[in-house]
Structure formats: C-alpha cells, structure tokens
C-alpha cells in the first residue's frame, strides 16, 4: 500500500493555507472604506485557487477511501486464512494425540508381553528389548534401529510398527500445521496494521476535503459580497454625477 501521498497532502495543506491567508488579507482590505479597493481579478484568482485545492483534496480523499476499502477486504481474507490455519492446527493436534496414545499403549503391551520364539537366553533378549525401547523414548535410538533390535530379539509387532509410523506422520503434519498458522497469523497482523494506516489517511483526507470545500464556499461568498458592494458604490457615484 502506497502511503507516500501524505507528503503531497501536507504540501497541499500548506499551499491552501497560504492561499486562504492571502484571501483573508484581501477581504479585510476590501472591507476598509478609506483604502484603495483590491484588484477584483486577484480576488477571483484566489477563489479559483481555493476551489482547485478543494477539488484536489476531494480527489485524494476518494482515492484514499478506495485504498482503505481494499485494505479492509485484504484484512478479512487474511483473518479467514488465519482462522482456517488455526482449525487445521487443532485437527493436527488431535490426530497427533490419538497416534501418541496408541503408540504408548502398544509400547506398554510390548513391555509386559513374553518373548516370542525364545532364544537360549530369553531374559537377556527381554532386557535388550526394554533397553532399546527406553533409548528410543529418550531419542538415543531411531525408529529403524528400534525395529532392528526387536527383530533380533523376536519381539517386533507389525501392528506396533504401523502405530509408530502413524505417529511419525502425525508429528510431521502437526509441525507443518503450526508453521502454516504462524505464517497466516503474521500476514493477518500485517494486514491489520495496513488497514488501520489506510483508514487513518482516508479520514484525514476526508476531513481536509470537507474543510477545503467550506473554505472555498466562504471565499466565493466573500467575492460575491465584494462585487455587490462594488456595484452599489458605482451606482451611487453615477447618481451623484448625474
């Protein structure tokens, strides 16, 4: 969003103030009966400048209002994506919890199950299996390594292998869902900041447009009053001359 127009608005405000001050000075001079009358053309030129400034501020205000409306649409879209990402994250968390609970139950069953196809030293194999499972829980052993240990001790359960695989998949989905939500939340915050900035600029320009229109209208009435007074003065002079 381009907010660089604020500098241009400031320049227009300064220029409008200068023109209005000049007009007021000329109007005061015009109201003094014993001083030379100001040039009507200069008064009209000042009024025209005020009218042009009013038109320019109205145009800028309309453009800023359109930008603010677009920013609101962008914000609504960003907030919708953020809410959807949050819902996806919650679904991924539920899926991960279910997979984790299934794996924990399978591990507990494996720890208490007797050794299948006992070898000459079944107690040793049982101890190795439990040690390998504990190492896997600590993160010292990878899932393929744990599988290999269980295969060698005869304690590997295909159903548990599938549960472990589903847990790994759920863990990756949850991590991706969290990253997606973080990105969507950042975009929503940025869109909200831009929408607020655009709305502030639009309100400032709308207010200035209203002021400039009122000033231009007052300037027009001033030149009308001066023209009418000037016309009466001319008629009075003609009557005295006649």
How would you summarize the topology of this molecule?
Blueprint: H1 5-31, H2 40-112, H3 122-138, H4 143-153, H5 158-241
Helix pairs in contact: 1-2, 1-5, 2-5, 3-4
Offer a quick outline of the entry.
The protein has 5 helices and no strands.
Question: Can you describe this structure?
Answer:
By secondary structure, the protein is mainly alpha-helical. The protein has one domain: Helix Hairpins (Orthogonal Bundle). 88% of the residues lie in helices and 0% in strands. The protein contains 5 helices and no strands.
Structural class: mainly alpha
CATH class descriptor name: Mainly Alpha
Tally of distinct domains: 1
Tally the beta strands: 0
Spell out the key features of this protein.
242 residues; mainly alpha; Helix Hairpins; 5 helices
